[in-house]
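Chain X:
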Amino acid sequence: MPRRFPKFRPEAWLATIALIAICGISLGNVIVRYATDASFAFTEEFSVFFLVVLTFAGAAVAARQNQHIRIELVEHYLPRWACKVVYLLQWLAGVIVLGVMVWYGSTFALQEYEWESLSPGLGLPNWIYVIWLPLLSLAIIIRMTQSLVDRLRGKQEPEVIHES
């Protein structure tokens, strides 16, 4: 049996750290609330931020491993050349949507920085939270492109069996 080395992906580590942070913050808040009938003020703000980071970082990991939800039935019954066209169309649709997110997310982060907007809960600069949207959207585009190149070259990992 060939030995598989773990894949180092920065976004996988980022998603893991975000999930651990959400769990730690939530657990700490529950314990404090149970013991003192009060709660931490920052938990909601940080939890939402970490949830967004977790979602986008996880999407980048899924894009690289070609595990996003899609209709695979069409791919199974098409000839190889038609599958390549479908792969390109899937990639193009994703790049368009994520490209819009990169553009408007960058514009929004820049505006938050220029206006010196502060978060309502803790008073931290909003751009710290918002900058992750365009950065992680760009990471997803990069991972989708890597996956497309692999699929066009025929270097696909073994297909995952989806149970439903």
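Chain Y:
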Amino acid sequence: MSDPFSSSALKVEQPRRGPFGKSRYKVLDGDDTLLAIAAPTADGGRAEAMRGILPGKSNLDARAVRLTTPDGDPLLTVDKQRGRDYTEILGVKDEVVGSFVTERVGRRYVIYDGDGTLLGAVDVDVPRTNFAVTDNDGTKVAHVRKRWAGLATHLLTTADKYAVEIYDPVPQPLRTMAVMTAIVMDMNLHESKEIT
């Protein structure tokens, strides 16, 4: 299977569906061609969905999304553990492709491959809208930017849009991890829409 994320310019978007649209994403290339869709791996039902809109909801709950091609072929799973400390990226056979480990909550995450070897880091700006992905030498290999969609969209829906720019060539698995940064950072930092 060829790499569906081979484009150096990608978009990651959540549907505008109110509080029930959490943990659903579309991955598109620069020409808006749909490359992948992501949906929760388990359906917690209406009670679980309602917890997302009640006061006190945070991004600390464990959850996972499975990415598939538009035809339904499995690609990857983003498995966010409870809290904000650890998120794994799993391959088609549930093998660990890599992980994001919190170094400073909301500010810096380190990236490891499936064997636990350090690959690089994600540095986050203060408003949590720009994510610089670097390799072990500190060279920037990708930039992920959360686009502002307006106050009403931000407060009343889960719709978030990210632009992902990869500075090719980037070796695997760091390239895959750079592409997944948008979904991982959204699940860790932006899914809760409360004003805090």
